[in-house]
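Hello,

Our lab assistant flagged a job as stuck in the queue for most of the afternoon. It eventually completed. Since we weren't sure the result was trustworthy after the delay, we are filing this so someone can double-check. Below is the sequence as submitted and the structure that was eventually returned. Let us know if re-running is recommended.
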Amino acid sequence: MSGLYLHIPFCKQACHYCDFHFSTSMALKSRFVEALTRELALRRDYLGADATLSTIYLGGGTPSLLTEAELNTIFEAIHRYFRVAPEAEITLEANPDDLTPTKVRELAASPVNRLSIGLQSFHEPHLRLMNRAHSAEESRAGVLRAQDAGFQNISVDLIYGVPAPDHGLWEADMAAAFALDVPHLSCYALTIEPDTVFGRQLKKGRFVAPPDDFVARQFELLLQEMHRHGYEQYEISNFCRPGHESRHNSAYWRGVPYLGLGPSAHSFNGHSRQYTVANNPQYVAAVLERGEVPATVEILSPQDRANEYLMTSLRTARGCDLAHLRDALGTDVSGQRAAYLQELQQTGLATLRGEVLQLTDAGKLLADHITLELFQG
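-- returned structure --
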């Protein structure tokens, strides 16, 4: 079973924290959809002739900007060129302001059976600071409309670590999200990337990021509230009610092969990665005019594959199987880094049950650092 990711690279406006590939110009949108359906044909054998798609994920960008006709065109092409499991999880990312009554009805009539809604905050000044296109009221209304239309599998995104005088606004955001009674929440710390509005403002002294201990405390509050409301933390930033994990993203973290389509999309077949050019005009021209996908292929060494497994598995509740690292990927962390593994356990940052290494709540705050320490090479 494999996954399909489609990158829809269009947004109404640029969020001040976002460094994903997108365009605020819709001039190429119809040509892009044509190119995307053509790429589906060009890459139909990437996952193998017998591959069955168990998950499909439309991300971006803002996939909810697609019209009903554009969405139908894409799904018709998927079913033309790929075998799709009857019970496949089909996710579409949406912004709340797009979830009008008409749009929700269209999505409910489509193959989409899971919505990932980017709320980010219920605090109006924070939404304006981040340059989000929606209001807090639109956030609530969009989720409620989706629920009324029959969507039961809904995820919402929240961002913490936004500058604030105290933790009250973050606690209020969590409370508002819990009140919506959705089965899945993705909660991310605000990260300031250099090539974003926040990054440029930070460099000029016009934006002041909160201190690390402020962000860490909000993460601790997040874990407490999720546990109190019956959500499981199955990955550092992802929480769900039992049985409502994102099957698509969970497959990424387990190293399941997937095909990524569209500009800036990544693909993985177990032995190599492929990166498509992050440029809409170049992508459309290459696919439609030359019948080729403008992508770079990276062959993964055993060391690369071991490091990827370390990075993804340590973020999950399942943890990192050191026996798999040794037997399947040729990396003996237990032997090579025995002293560091012991230190992690003694300092309460990780547990080792048999040969499965799992980060504790304290360790999750340092996940990137711990992973780098364990990297090979």
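-- support follow-up --
The delay was a queue issue, not a problem with the job. The result is valid. The chain has a mean pLDDT of 96. Residues 194 and 200 are 6 Å apart (CA to CA).
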